[in-house]
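Weekly modeling sync, notes
Attendees: S.R. (lead), two postdocs, one rotation student

Agenda item 3: backlog of single-chain predictions. S.R. asked that every request posted to the team notebook include the full sequence so nobody has to chase files. The rotation student volunteered to paste the first one in as an example of the format we agreed on. Action items at the bottom.

Example entry:
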Amino acid sequence: MLHIRTPLILHPGLSTPDRRIWLKMENLQPSGSFKMRGMGRLCTYAAEQGMKSVVCPSGGNAGLAAAMAAISLGLEALIIVPVTTPEATRQRIARTGAQVRVHGQVWDESNQLALKLAEDPQTQYVPAFDHPLLWEGHSTMIDEILEDCPQVDTLITSVGGGGLLAGILTGLERHQRTDCRIIACETEGAASFAAAVAAGHPVKLSQIKTIASSLAASQVAAWPVEHIRRFPHDCVVLSDDAAINGVVRFAEDMRQLVEPACGVSLAVAYQHNPVIAEARDVVIVVCGGVSVSAQTVSNWQV
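Predicted structure, as returned to the notebook:
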């Protein structure tokens, strides 16, 4: 197991006598995000199958987690990033011992190269979000949440490509907790999951425009779109400003940094959004993210 068991803590400032707000601190994973769970599971599988290397197309969090997991298992790792990936993030990935290659203006172009390189039978393709083993890995956080807070009735999560959400649904189904309400959060410029739920199937957005770059999937995985129907659920789409406010307030409250992709989920609680009006025990997945700095958050506060 390459991930750690993260704490579930009560947010005293947001909780009331009638509603408890719990934080699942996935930002404390070794890679800085929940991605370590799924990437650890998929890279372990690759090692068990005798693979020699992994290739992962990623703009940041998935690539760092894949690199850390692969290197720890003795595998070579190639992380292909688009030109939009910040230099600081590239360097952070490279420090793990992985090779970083810049290719493409957008993630889709990085992905095409990764798929071509993964034709090598000794190389495992590691997608950012759309793979059952990733979901299986991510689902382990549900085991922990239900052990610590079995009475949870509402779970808030950010949705990018849908990998985290798929893991959450997988875990809840395994525990027969389809009664738990799911609040799926996105920013206005990247609401591909809300669009998919409305249409009944994945749809491709014509453009992505959001500060929450980790949510920038123009089309989500199909599986969570179908399976969320088994749960009471809401799709919440908030502004970039709301996501940033979630980041800033979390930094002030908890003295920890997360990306706007995480801030949008926190904003649901900070704004006292009506979707949690009837909830009693709410768990927010603090999914984390490494492409943020103290200077960035300070600038947002101005």
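Discussion: group reviewed the output briefly. The two ends are 41 Å apart (CA to CA).
Action items: rotation student to repeat for the remaining queue; S.R. to check formatting next week.
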